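We read letters as residues; the integers encode the fold. Take this protein.
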Amino acid sequence: MAVRRAGPVAVLTLTAVVVVAAWVSWFLGGLTFADAADDSYLLTNSAQALTFTTFGALVLAHRPGHRIGLLFVAYGACYTLSVACLGLLTDAVGLPEAWARAVELFGITAWIPAPVVCLPLIVQLFPDGRPLSRRWRPLAVATLAVLPFTPIPTLSVAAGPAGDGPAAEEPMLPVIVGEVAQRLIPVFAAVAALVLLASLGALVLRVRRSRGVPRQQLMWLLWAVGLFAALNAQRIVTTDGPVLFLLTLPLIPAAATVAILRHGLYDIELIVNRSLVYGVLTLGVVLAYLGIVAGLSALARDRLSAAPLIATAVVALAFAPARSAVQSLVDRVMYGQRRDPVAAAARVGLRLGAGLDGVLRAVCEALRLPYAAVASDGRLVATYGRSPRRRHTVSLEVADGPPADLLVGLRAGESRLSGADRRALELLAAPVGLALQAVRLSEQLGESRTRIVAAREEERRRLRRDLHDGLGTVLTAVTLKADAAHNLRHTDPERSARLLLDLRADLTAAIADIRRLVYNLRPPALDELGLLGALRQRAQDSWRHEHAGYVVTIDAPDGLPPLPAGVEVAAYRIATEAVTNALRHGGATACRVSLRADHAALHVEVSDNGSGGAGAWPHGVGLRSMHERAGELGGTLTAGPTDCGGRVHARLPLEQT
């Protein structure tokens, strides 16, 4: 580790020594700090030399050979040479005029490769040190090809006289060199500008294509570049402006170093948010101040002393509401409607008709989230977006079925959701839960339809089998016996008579089969006696005769409301099946069938005094049949042991008029 960091530490130490020596020479030569901060650029060049070299050394110490770190060091080296030249030009050193001019020209030339070559390469290769793709490699080659032409701006100066008047020195280079250089300067400036614009284009494209950690790293660089460009807009456009604003350029290596080494340490989106808010506020305050002063000056030309005071008071009063409005606008752009959960919930509610996928998309759009999903019973029911590494979970309230959760992905750069986001998600959980309930009901409806179709086809198959194998065979035998009796009526009358008697018995059996088939479709007793009468008849006749000593009691009010045919059949079948199960498997001696009806449903309850069993009842054919009959009507059925036997309860919805 120490060997790996020796090189970066040595470079940083050498840079610091050169900068300190230049400042010592500066002050010994009789110059002041104000002179260093003026057009001499000693202050700004020193800051860039130290900061770029420092951050480059940090990157190289942790990522040896990283191209971004090497470019930072190269950038700092260019400005270190420029600072060294400024230190040599003071009276403390006292160089001859010719040497002083050569050093001055070299100092002007030395820093040019930094913004013209190093900075575009940093933008192109950030954050991993590689171009965006193979197609973008020629841009890096073209950027490096500009390096030999960086002395062009100073060649014209070197080919001209050193001063004005008769005492001017001879030019350092032939005049023809200066003329050629003068003509090449516009071309050089245009090429450098195109390279920088193309580099910024590559950066924007990389941001659009990136996801996860790379996007978070790029956000750091974009924030630094945007802040520097905003503060130095005048210098970028007119090549002139406040010199001290160049001190913001070290923000770029600082942000890039944090992105490479500690991108998850700070919330870059929060930094961008606050930068936008205070940037817009600062611009607004400046414009408001200038506008108010200009307006008051036009109204009261002879009393200008009051204008700045009035302007300051107006700006101070307007700052708080302006900050609130700008903060709300920036938050809406970056975080959606998290500060207005009601509006977000309304927006999500409008998507309920689009299904669960549409609701999740609305959640992501409302809060600017990259991912949303609903998980239930260990599986993902629906998802939207790409799942990030960090997620937040919100419990959903669902009326029926297993519990479910809403999973949302955190935005790039966030380690956890803010309180406003969590409050908004808690409110949005309600429409998401409704959408999940709708999906579950739709799935249940589909399953119910499938069961109904399967039951219908099974019933058709059973009827076909009974008609073909039972009734069909009997009728075929009747036909053959009738033919035989007809053929023997003259030759063997006694045998013909016996065949006719057999024929009568077969027809009686066929009639019984027909009655059985009709009874299985719908018990005739329901049409003759109604549900209550049919159950009482079955209790008095069949159950009492088939199981001596077994008592079945029917408990129901005398006046049941008119029941739909489907409800009657389902209630009758469920009751008879429950009693049969209690007789066969429960070991009971008494059973009670209770019927109750309210405005919404018919309640059928069958309880017995049998053993009931130790645990939940297994789903056999009978129990499954009862569940299916209740489910076909949209009802529910519960069955299982109790403390005093077994109990079956069915709730069958009534049709509403």
Observations:
- The radius of gyration is 46 Å.
- Residues 419-487 form the longest helix (69 residues).
- Residues 163-168 have pLDDT under 50 and may be disordered.
